[in-house]
Amino acid sequence: MTAFKLAAVSAGLSKPSSTRLLADRLAEATVRRLGEEGREAEVAVIELRDLAVDIANNFVTGFPAAALREAIGTVTEADAVIAVTPIFTASYSGLFKSFFDVIDHDALTGKPVLIAATGGTARHSLALEHAVRPLFSYLRAVVLPTAVYAATDDWGTAGDALTDGLPGRIERAAGELAGLLAGHGPVAEAAVPEQVVPFAEQLAALRV
């Protein structure tokens, strides 16, 4: 049984980066949850900060440099993608958006994508729903229900009786991704498209 290929895309700009840390935590949790299902996974991490110049040049020349071409191949050939961006001005970073702009718009069709983001305060968390999720929905990816946002104050917290802390959100999202890849669970069932009955057949049935 072949190992799953996971591509973790981090758009963090600093080094070390909380965005990269969140990507690593999500990847580690997913690999562990898959291991509990008896499945193996290999993780390739893509640091977009190292590809910033290549991405800009690709827009000008129309051709990706070798490093960017390799990164694009890693994402498009992966079984699933973990995409993590810092939130700037209530949206994803320009570097994050630019990377997915240079990928063929059909390359992520049907591919599971776990979205996550980091930011200074919790008030930016809705950017995952109004900006990041629509981006991958437009690319026809299968976006996991749980999106993980990590504010500065979230690191090291355990949550309370009403909300999960960051570790709990990471575990829930990783469990959804592992379940989808393993081919069972409510997320996998929801991802199966319903059979569409042609309109002509529906009309014919009404006339009988």
From TrEMBL:
<dbReference type="GO" id="GO:0016491">
    <property type="term" value="F:oxidoreductase activity"/>
</dbReference>
<keyword id="KW-0285">Flavoprotein</keyword>
<dbReference type="InterPro" id="IPR051814">
    <property type="entry name" value="NAD(P)H-dep_FMN_reductase"/>
</dbReference>
<dbReference type="InterPro" id="IPR029039">
    <property type="entry name" value="Flavoprotein-like_sf"/>
</dbReference>
<dbReference type="InterPro" id="IPR005025">
    <property type="entry name" value="FMN_Rdtase-like_dom"/>
</dbReference>
<dbReference type="Pfam" id="PF03358">
    <property type="entry name" value="FMN_red"/>
</dbReference>
<dbReference type="InterPro" id="IPR023932">
    <property type="entry name" value="CE1759_FMN_reduct"/>
</dbReference>
<protein>
    <submittedName>
        <fullName>Oxidoreductase</fullName>
    </submittedName>
</protein>
<keyword id="KW-0560">Oxidoreductase</keyword>
<keyword id="KW-0288">FMN</keyword>
<feature type="domain" description="NADPH-dependent FMN reductase-like">
    <location>
        <begin position="5"/>
        <end position="153"/>
    </location>
</feature>
